[in-house]
Amino acid sequence: MDSHSLDPDKPFRRRTWHWLTHELRQALRKNVFIRYLFEFHDLKIRLLLGNIFAIVQAVSLIPISLLFKRIIDVYIPQKDASAIGWVIAVGLGLWAVHIGATVASRYFTLSSTKTVTERLRARLVMHLQQMSLRFYDKERISELHPRVVMDTERVDVMANALVVTVLVSAVVALASAVLLLMINARLALLVFVMVPLYYVIQRTFSTKLKEGHRSFRKEMEQMSSIVHELLHSIRLVKSFAREPFEQERVQERIRRVTHRGVRLFTETAAFQILLQFVGGLALLVIFTVGAWMTINDRMTLGEIVAFSSLLAYFLNPINTLIGCVDTIYAGRAGLESVYGLLDIYDTEKSDHLPRIDVQGAVEFQNVCFEYRKGEAVLHNVSFRVQSGEQVALVGASGAGKTTVANMILGFYFPTEGRVLIDEHDITKVNLRALREQIGVVSQDNILISGSVLNNIRYGKMDATFEEIVAAAKLANAHDFITGLPDGYDTDIGDRGVRLSGGQKQRIAIARAILKNPKILVLDEATSALDSESEAVVQEALKHLRHNRTCFIIAHRLSTIIEANRIFVLKRGHLVEAGNFEELMARKGEFFRYYQLQFKTKEQVANTTVAI
Ligand SMILES: Nc1ncnc2c1ncn2[C@@H]1O[C@H](COP(=O)(O)OP(=O)(O)O)[C@@H](O)[C@H]1O
Ligand SMILES: [Mg+2]
């Protein structure tokens, strides 16, 4: 429990009070709505002002109906034209208050709910960045992304609806109901009978319409994606002369959108006209029953007019309130999703651990590892790599090479055994500080959106332009960069200039050179390149590899031969380790791998001559 309850110096009653409030807070926070309300702790005044102005907005126009009654019942019979000016002044005054209160209420409500939404989004993004890679192995990005963007928006829409719609509508409906009762209780009760009718209509249609909207949106998305896809594969379509086939396929989708649209919007129209019908019915009742009452001297003409003008103030908000139910459900679902994500504590917690100064020695001690329980990926792997040593990791696809790299970076911790960087157990160091000193060049996701300059600077955020150019030169990238439309400022994001695979890799290498790491991991950095760009990139990599501990995962023979040692991985076991000559002489696993990979290649002829 918390420290208050254990503190002997505090008087018992105070301790109990603290304990109680603490427990109460915890219990209340279990409810997502209340937890959400706590988010407004420093925005109370704004939220309160938003609510007060909403109430003012709600009641400010209602007295106008009473003015109408007065005109008809008092001023007209008395033929008193002088009062008209006064009525107009009051009416305009009420409208001025209404307009002012509406704008003020919107401003205060929006500025508090949007601030909370902004904070929730920022907190979600921060939270997601702190999550371990294990979390990302389990979760789908396509499902995480909408939680940050859409679910928070739903919460915001709900919060605004609660203040602006629910509060205002409830106050207006209540105030006008009271007035209706005061003017003529019997007629008012007749009007109230309409409310269940509204409810029935709303409930009958709401599921139908919601479903309709959903499938309409889905059809739209599918049409959009099929057109998108077609445009993307236009070369293929043309080369196979499949235009008529594609036309048929796309047209089918377009037809379905039409079908759905006609249905949805017809249903919407039916729904709306039925609602209007209830309003019309109520008006009919007021005028017929009201007329009968007036004839029998139970009501005045002015009361009928006041009644009919109040009717809209009563029925519209009731209608809105019933319609709001869905927004609130959606908001609650949004809240549950947002807090559900924030409550997952699969974060990397190492910021409090000591920052180490990496020299470059890496040791695996009997490392076992599994991504999923019971599926071992590394079995008892042990090795020790000196600072500055160049190691090639070799093995078939799926052997565990990338996994070894992941563990050096502390992306995952061993299930058994230890990973040591310069004698420091990786589970006991500050991981962000460690990763600052490790460079990675891999095959995918190598660029961030933005300019070339910012991409290289990502390796060292405070680098000067001269340092960046020097790194680019070492990476064989300077020449092609200066040839780009805006040189170093060229945008290479999604909407920017397209670079070749080799060019991208050289930018990634420049970034790693700038970072100047003590340990370098090259995970198939050149695998996706054609041999020509590979040669240029290899050249760049030479500069990068110089003078640091390197783990090189590559299939190119010359790279493997150049390494000080070769580690051969087979289904998660480290089966052989040694330099090229040793392993070839042993005629074991590496020898077989070599035969398989390089025997038929021209390369082999060249290299064997070179040996
Ligand atoms: N994130 C992951 N979640 C679950 N299994 C994984 C994950 N990454 C890799 N694996 C599995 O671990 C094994 C080793 O993969 P990996 O280290 O990527 O091999 P390599 O890089 O040698 O091709 C493979 O069987 C692969 O399917
Ligand atoms: Mg791999």
Report on the architecture of this protein.
By secondary structure, this protein is α/β, with parallel strands linked by helices. The chain has four domains: 27 residues, no CATH class; 162 residues, ABC transporter transmembrane region fold, CATH 1.20.1560; 114 residues; 189 residues, P-loop containing nucleotide triphosphate hydrolases (Rossmann fold), CATH 3.40.50.300. It is 65% helix and 10% strand. It has 23 helices and ten strands. Strands 6-7-8-3-9-10 form a six-stranded mixed beta sheet, sandwiched between helices. Strand 9 and strand 10 form a beta hairpin. Helix 3 packs across helix 7. Bound molecules: adenosine-5'-diphosphate (ADP) and magnesium ion. The site of adenosine-5'-diphosphate (ADP) has 12 residues, from strand 1 and helix 13.
Sum up the structure in keywords.
single chain; alpha/beta; four-stranded antiparallel sheet; disordered C terminus; binds adenosine-5'-diphosphate; binds magnesium ion
